[in-house]
Amino acid sequence: MDQTKTLIQLQELGLTAKESCVYLSILEHGPLSTTQLSRLTKIPKTNIYRMTENLLIQNLVNKIIGPRGVLFEATSPDYFKTLIDDKINKLSHIQESLPPLLGELKALQNNPKYKTNVRFYEGLDGIKQLIWNSLEADTIIYGYSTLGRAIALGNDFEERVEREYKVRKITDRIIINDSKDTLAYLARAHKPSLHGNINIRIFPEEDFYISNDIMIYNNILSVSTWKDKNYFGFEIENAEVVKTQKSMYNIMWKAAKPLNKYV
Predict the structure, then answer these.
(1) What is the pTM of this model?
(2) Beta strand 171-177 with 140-144: parallel, antiparallel or unpaired?
(3) Which of 4, 71, 79, 192 might form a disulfide with 31, Cβ 3.0–4.6 angstroms?
(4) Domain 125-224+240-261 in CATH: superfamily?
């Protein structure tokens, strides 16, 4: 791979030359500490702190709290698609060069090296990234929801996610409460019928209160909230945690009532 060309393309996407070096190092070598990044890139550690902070703000890397302390892991290179959509009017030529760039970046990206990873997301763009990550689900997403994601994150983004669910044949299985606001939103947003890849059941709010969005897929437990525009979320990647959560979810799913009992 011609890294000189890749570095130039990353700078066209808005990264500085040194940020591009740091990002490529994380992709190629997997989760790294600031000390390891400084050693690999020959950039002073004091500068590494600033660069990783900028990459975090742009949602290009995540913090991992692992057995060796704080490490930095690259998010999926697919997130550059979101960045390009935001800058399409000024950077239309980047859109043409993005697909081959993504292919090269994905070829570098290592699999997670730790059994347990915890990733945090903040702000509107951070929550969009967390939701977009769910497109990596193998077949089914098991979830609890307050609904209203389109209102909080934007109709265009929500429609893109739902289209991708269909293309990738991902089933979204959701448990919601029977609150007045939730049922009103459901009737307004999904009548006369639901999309074929979405299956919803309802559990009484007085017995089981749902206040945020939770998704369970692959080996990931994903939790997010956006109430009052307080955007925050996290992912826990651990097979045993997910196994327990999925077992609890299946009990709740069997006890919940089908949607046609309400709507």
Answers:
(1) 0.56
(2) parallel
(3) 71
(4) Endonuclease Chain A (3.30.870.10)
